[in-house]
Amino acid sequence: MSRNQDTQLISPRHIVSRVCLVVLSLFLFQIYLGESPQFAHYLADTFPIHSAGSIYATVGVHPCSANTLEKNPSDIEALEKLAFEGKAQGTVTAFGEIGLDYDRLFHASKETQLKFFSAQLKIAEKLDLPLFLHSRAAAEDFENLLFSANLPRKGLVHSFTGELDEMKRLVDAGYDIGVNGCSLKTKENLDVVKEIPLERMQIETDGPWCQIRSTHASAEYLKDMPDYLKPEMMEEKKKEKFEAGKRVKGRNEPCAISEVAWVVAKVKGISFEEVCER
Question: Could you tell me the pLDDT band of residue 208, with boundaries at 50, 70 and 90?
Answer without folding.
Answer: confident
